[in-house]
Amino acid sequence: MIQNPQDVLGRGALAKKAEKKQQAALSEEEKRRHRCCFTGHRPQGITRPLDDVKVDLENMIMAAIQEGYTTFVTGMCIGVDIWAGEIVQRLKSQYPGIHLIAAVPYPGFPDRWPAEWKNKYDLLLQNADAVRVISPAYEEKVFQTRNEWMVDHCAKLIAVSNGRKGGTQNTIAYARKKRISVTTIKA
To answer: In the chain, how many domains are there?
Structure first.
């Protein structure tokens, strides 16, 4: 026998609230399962012909799309990050359901870049489906923080690596530690 109907209603409302919270969490997890991010070197760290690396990168992005990845996250650095973003933007006409997230380390990040790279950066930023600024200003570990944020919000990492110590290797190691799928292209 129910002694206080409000107790039952209260528990029901709490159960519905918990269910909504769980659905939101599942929905974020589901989104994560369809996200892929990139890491790689600046052009001077790549030993293979750059055009060959770009072709391999495009093939890996198309393979990821075929695997069901629909959102791609670029860290917006000179080299692999920018090339990957440009490839995703170009593939949108062929695969209209794909999206690009720009993970910007901090505002003003490309201010000292050569004009050619700054223009590429600006164009990607303007055409990105979403922009995430990782830190309000430069700080010592902002690039590692950005890399970890990308891995934490994705299920796959496409890496262009020469195997040398640095940010790319740190990102690969972090992704493996987090049990994220890693596909590596030889730099």
So the answer is: 1
